[in-house]
Each structure stands twice: as structure tokens, then as C-alpha cells.
Amino acid sequence: MLNVPSQAFPAPGSQQRVASQGRSKVPLKPGRSLMDWIRLTKSGKDLTGLKGGIIDVTEEELKKHNKKDDCWICIRGLVYNVSPYMEYHPGGEDELMRAAGTDGTDLFNEVHRWVNYESMLKECLVGRMAMKPTVLKDYHEEKRVLNGMLPKNQVPKNQDVVDTLPREGPSTPSYDWFQTESSVTIVIYTKQKNISLDSVIVDLQDESLRAEAVIKDHSYLIHIGLSHEVQEQFSVRVIENVGKIEIVLQKRENVSWKCLGHPLEKHNSLIPKKETGLYYRKCQLTSKEDVTHDTRLFCLMLPPSTHLQVPVGQHVYLKLSVTGAEIVKPYTPVSDSLHSDYKETALPPNKYIYFLIKIYPDGLFTPELDRLQIGDFVSLSNPEGNFKVSKLEKVEDLFLLAAGTGFTPMVNVLNYALTYMSSLRQVKLMFFNKTEDDIIWRRQLEKLAFKDERFDVEFVLSAPSSEWNGKQGYVSLALLSEFLQRSLEDSSVFLCICGPTPFTEEGIRLLHDLNFSDDEIHSFTA
Ligand code: FAD
Ligand code: NAP
Q1: Structure confidence by residue, pLDDT tens digits, 6-32
Q2: Where would I find the H helices in 153-280?
Q3: Nearest CA to ligand 1 atom 43
Q4: Which one, of 217, 198, 263, 267, lies nearest residue 113 by Cα?
Q5: How far is the CA of 371 from the centre of ligand 1 (A)?
Q6: Element (H, E) at 248
Q7: E strand spans, 264-351
Q8: Cβ neighbours of residue 132 closer than 8 Å, sequence gap 6 or more
Q9: Alpha helices in 268-407, H assignment, sequence order
Q10: Which atom of ligand 2 lies nearest, measured to the CA of 502?
Q11: Which distant-in-sequence residues (6+ apart) come within 8 Å of 131 by Cβ?
């Protein structure tokens, strides 16, 4: 059984009451936790107010439902009666009322696009927005493309490839395909230089191919029901200087394909990333190791039919079913350890993704995750996040400020910095924890500092034992000004910060006081 919190949840003062990006969560009344909401949705009570049935909702009708006790909101074309949910909304009733009687999709995308509202609000579904008559899309073009007859003038030549994007967003990529006796190759012309392997995510599931190419803040999607069976394993190649992606599928039978297949939802579309839903695949738990008394290193194995690499500093969402409701939380992949002689080849093979996860005994998600047995499955999303390694170009002094599991994004940033940043003179980590027992990978960090003279680590404890003779306290001006010493007077500096939201906010405020600019600071958030 779940360890269901009996009191207000999260507890008043818990860091979980303050969301990322400074959005404050409001105290929820007792009996109004997420778990209470899940219970209510399962009680069989009519939460739509319509006593069953799904209706087509016109804009005029939607507008009428704009009061707290009669509040409908449209999200991505579906209309929900959110009145029963008001008191359970962690952001408060007023926040929800901002979208009352309107299409709240943009607001929703802005604030918490990753929240699994379909599952949370499914019992409140009133209907879908009635469509205004629109000009139907002509699918002839699509069919021709899938038949591999892309007109010559649509296939970009190398000289057509641009390395700057129009102000409105990237130019729409195109694709083509060709075959040999044993393979089928799909070629995506991104029209964008410097595409890397981690900007391509490919999943083959039940004879359908889904390939997403992340191009700046947009996603280009190829989504096809294949005309013939292919083998599970495939390869992905990127020709960076021309922005070309090749996905090579292996045919199951050596027959000639007359067409590639048929288009599936959103095939051949370029969508702003914030508007794309999260796509999940099931991953198998292959190992779980204790790292501290409450933090474990989890290893998940991607399905063989998935190509996915999480870019440095980005996170994914893990999804589990908790008493029948789908719960989603963000986590930041790490390498399996800190390698003092870190090399690219030392990275875990791309099939395995590691996470350092702290288990909160009263938490909703982590106890459930901790209960998984080796061999069990958990769903994992495409990567998200706005950190770019290009921010580190030419940086000489890199400072990392982490508190608790806020250490996780620093792991890959640190590995990247020591391996690839030729400009780097020093990288220093200030790591805030409550006690010595809470420090993640302490020995490894000390070993790395001993072996690589560019790296240094300083531990700061907020509740040390009497034996501790290191630094102590909370993040402060005194601690930071002593720590943030440049290697040269005018060296180029970059700072990363991550931890409980109040820690991060206070840290950023202090960094501003110390005259660091926003361009020199990256704070990790969802
Ligand atoms: P929650 O249910 O959110 O509870 C959290 C806190 O509230 C705990 O302290 C819990 O004890 C307390 N609480 C709950 N109920 C009660 C109650 N009734 N009374 C008193 N206290 C209560 N975390 C990691 O460990 N590793 C990562 O790599 C990682 N990456 C992240 C990346 C991003 C972008 C973000 C935003 C967060 C990341 N997190 C990471 C945090 C993670 O997403 C979750 O917030 C965390 O795992 C807690 O989830 P939970 O559902 O188990 O806990
Ligand atoms: P924790 O153990 O509760 O706290 C770590 C240290 O920070 C402790 O010393 C703690 O002191 C201190 N601290 C807490 N609140 C503070 C404040 N207001 N000002 C200054 N110091 C403060 O941390 P945790 O449980 O591991 O939580 C880590 C947090 O990082 C979570 O909120 C998680 O969501 C976030 N995180 C974010 C990302 C991301 O955005 N990419 C990635 C990973 C983790 P005391 O305990 O003594 O108060």
C-alpha cells in the first residue's frame, strides 16, 4: 500500500510548496492533497456535472462557464469542468480561474506543460471543442512523399542548408527515403547546421516509426505506420555540417517496398517544443544501488527499438501508475559515476540511463519508484530543458552551486567541462547538504579533486555534527564571495545553480549582488 500522507500535503514549509521559476504554491486545505484528489476521481462521483456523456462545446458555451462553482477550461481541444478540482490545485484557485471559460492551453503550456492533466482530469472531461469548418488539408502531397517521390525541388541541396534561422522559427525540414535489398533509409533534411545525435529521438513501436528532430525550440516529427516489418534494431547517423539525419532500418524480408507507409498523427510537422506533448517509452529497471542513506542510483534500460540520448544538463520525466493514476516527476540523468579519467567512451552505453534519486518516505512518487523490482518497467519521456553546452564555450572559470539532489545536473556538466572545454582553467563545486551522511558521491568528488588539478570541491553543511571542521551554514554572501575567486582578473566566468527553490532563488540574488550578470548564470528548473 502507498504511504498516504495523512496531513496537508506537501507539508507547510516543504520546498515542494514552491514551484520552479518562482511560482508559489498555495497551502492546500487538509484533505485536499493529490492523493485525496485521486481518491475522489475513483469514487464514482459525477465530476463533470453532466451525468455522463461527452458533448461538443462551442466557444459561446465555454465562455458561459467562468465562475468558481461552474468553471470549464479547454486544454488542447478538450474541455474540462475544473470546479471540483479548484481546492486541490497546488497553484491555487485564482491561478485556475485565469483560464475560466477560455482556452487555457497557452497558460497551461507556460506553467506546467508536463503535468499529466489527461489522467488527472479525466473524470472532469465535459467534451471537445466543436470545430469551426476549416479547409481540409490536401493529403496528396503527403502520399507522394511517403511514396518516395519527393519533387526534386523540395530536396535541399547542400548549398540550401542554412545555419541561421528566420526570426519566426526554423524553416520546415523535409524528408525522403530510399532502399537497398536489406535496408530502408529515411533521410531528414533539417536545413540546420550543427544538429547532433542527441537532438534526434527515434522509437519503433508496433510497426510504426516516430522520429523527432529537435531544431532550436521546435520539434520536427516523422510519424509513419511502416508498410512492411522491420527489425527492432536500427541505426541513426547525423551529418552535422549539412544538417542531415539518416535513420537506417533493417528489413525483415528482402522485398522491395513500394511505399514507406502511411502518415500517422502530426506526421511531417514542425511544432514549437512547448506545444508538443511528452512522448514516453517503457524502460526496464536493471539495477538499484544505495548511494547515501536515502539516495539511490537507478539504472534504466531503454528498449532496443529506441534511440535517445539526454543532452548535458537536461532532464526527463518518469511516469508511474500510483493507485491507478499516472504520476509524472522530472529527473536528471547522470553518468554512472564520476570518472577521474573521464573519456567519452566511459559514458554508459546509450542503452542505459542512470539517475540519482532521493527517496522521500512521505513523497508520492519516490516510494513507489523505490518499490520497483529489477526487471519492472517505468515510462521515460523525451528530454527537456533549456541548458545548452554552447553556453560553456570559451568559459575559463566554471562555478557549480548545488544543494542536495540539485547536484544531479552538475554531474554531466562537470564531466563535460573536464573532457571537452579546452578553454577551462578551473571548475569549482560548492555542495550544500544537511549532514555528512547526505553528501552524494563524496569520495568520488574528493578523488576527482585530487587527480585533476582543475577541479575543486567545497562541502557546506547546514546541520553538521560536532566533528565537522569544514564550512557550515546556508548559502550566504560571505561563503560565495570567498568561493567565487576568478583564476584571472578578467577571466570569462559561468555559474550553474540547482537545489531547493528557495536555495536557488537566494543564490541567484546573492550572485547578482556580487555583480554576476544573468548571462553568466544558469539555474536548473523544470
Ligand atoms: P513529493 O510528494 O513531492 O514530496 C516531497 C516532499 O514533501 C518530501 O519532503 C516529503 O517528505 C514531503 N511531504 C510529503 N507529504 C508530506 C506530509 N504529509 N507531511 C510532511 N511532509 C510531507 N530529484 C532527485 O532525487 N533526482 C533528480 O535527478 C531530480 N531531478 C529533478 C529535475 C528537475 C527539473 C526538477 C524540477 C526536479 C528534480 N528532482 C530530482 C525532484 C523530483 O522531481 C521530485 O520532486 C522528488 O523526487 C520528490 O518527489 P515525490 O513525489 O517522491 O515527493
Ligand atoms: P535538502 O537535503 O532538503 O537540502 C539541501 C541543502 O540545502 C540543505 O543543507 C538544506 O538545509 C539547504 N536548504 C534548504 N532550503 C534552503 C534555503 N531556503 N536556503 C538555503 N539553503 C537551503 O535538498 P533535497 O531534498 O535533496 O532537494 C533538492 C531539491 O533540488 C529539490 O527541490 C529538487 O526538486 C531540486 N532539484 C532540481 C533539479 C532541476 O531543476 N534540474 C534537479 C535536481 C534536484 P536544511 O535542510 O538544513 O534546511
Answers
A1: 333 343 434 343 344 445 567 788 888
A2: none
A3: 330
A4: 217
A5: 16
A6: strand 244-251
A7: 269-272, 280-290, 295-301, 306-307, 316-322, 325-331, 333-334
A8: none
A9: 366-370
A10: 18
A11: none
